[in-house]
Design brief:
Length: 331
């Protein structure tokens, strides 16, 4: 066991002079490290299998790094000066620019995370924002936002963020946003593999990989879809009805393949009776709050007019199979 651990630690410490191996830096800003924890649960391959398959190492990642202190800071400085090649800069967590534009609300050593990102991003072949915090700001950037937190290239739905709308990495790409709170580990590893392998990685309007965030919603694959179609709504946790109307589920509005990829390759929130929060949306969490509460009216999610939707809902409720009423405990 000790030999295995030792070899893995050496793999994370490898420098850019190891022929052909890509260097990945993983910085943490304002984060609970949830995306790091999620990413380390990746399977088929696991994390170290992925490092071998796609031939990359972690020049630094706080959660698993075996070194600390001056040794880490010296290495980060070398990447910032270009002494070591930086293939991928990954940032987890939002970046505070406060107080008063100093960024000193969050530090690595004596420098703010804001300074580190501004120094390292221009050196990177690719820059990746992992998680909704790094991509769009998320909870740290929610009002009143005392630290003036923001995402790397977006603030909520607005382009800009810390690096600015025009920023491009050395590969000519904007920041690649892989949102989620936490992010799904497969989305990170598959995106990283695509970038390092030179494969096409088409991005949506929020610079997220389309393969995960474009055409699929959390509503798709939900086992309660039939209840949704017949407008049979759950009233409380434990009911078998749809979670959209009374429980505040964001599944129809949220683009993510949670019911396809699942978590721990087992389940998704909606598959265990929990409403989707819409955690990978750019305006999360404020636009989705308060959670678990009834919506004001029957709001359509696909561009239909509210009146037409409401009339259609009445017909569908009248036509619903009796078994659905029995399953959900009645009207």
């Amino acid at each position: 066991m000790s030999e295995t651990v030792s070899s893995k630690q050496a793999h994370t410490q490898a420098d850019s002079d190891k022929s052909g191996t890509a260097n990945v830096l993983w910085l943490q800003g304002q984060t609970d490290a949830g995306c790091s924890m999620s990413m380390m649960n990746v399977q088929q391959p696991d994390l170290y299998g992925a490092m071998d398959e796609f031939d990359f190492n972690f020049g630094y990642m706080n959660t698993i790094n075996p070194t600390s202190g001056p040794e880490v800071l010296d290495k980060l400085e070398k990447f910032g000066r270009g002494d070591l090649s930086l293939d991928v800069l990954i940032v987890e967590g939002s970046v505070p620019t406060g107080p008063d534009g100093t960024g000193m609300a969050c530090l690595i050593g004596s420098k703010s995370v804001m300074e580190w990102v501004e120094m390292l991003a221009p050196e990177a072949e690719f820059v990746v924002a992992v998680g909704t915090c790094a991509a769009f700001g998320n909870i740290p950037a929610a009002g009143p936002n005392p630290t003036d937190a923001t995402g790397l290239q977006f603030h909520r739905r607005e382009k800009g963020g810390l690096l600015g709308e025009e920023f491009r990495s050395n590969a000519g790409l904007p920041v690649v946003n892989i949102s989620g709170c936490p992010v799904h580990p497969d989305w990170v590893i598959q995106s990283l593999g695509a970038l390092l392998s030179g494969e096409d990685l088409s991005l949506d309007e929020y610079n997220r990989p389309k393969t995960f965030f474009d055409d699929v919603t959390v509503h798709q694959g939900c086992p309660r879809n039939e209840h949704y179609e017949y407008k049979e709504a759950a009233e409380e946790f434990g009911d078998q009805g749809c979670l959209y109307l009374n429980m505040g589920c964001e599944g129809p509005n949220t683009h993510a393949p949670c019911n396809r990829d699942k978590w721990n390759r087992q389940k998704s929130l909606t598959q265990v009776g929990i409403p989707c929060h819409g955690c990978n949306q750019p305006d999360f969490p404020e636009a989705q709050m308060p959670f678990f509460e009834r919506r004001d009216g029957l709001t359509p999610h696909s561009g239909l007019k509210a009146l037409a939707y409401s009339l259609g809902a009445g017909f569908m409720k009248a036509a619903k199979p009796e078994r659905l009423t029995e399953d959900s405990g009645g009207d």
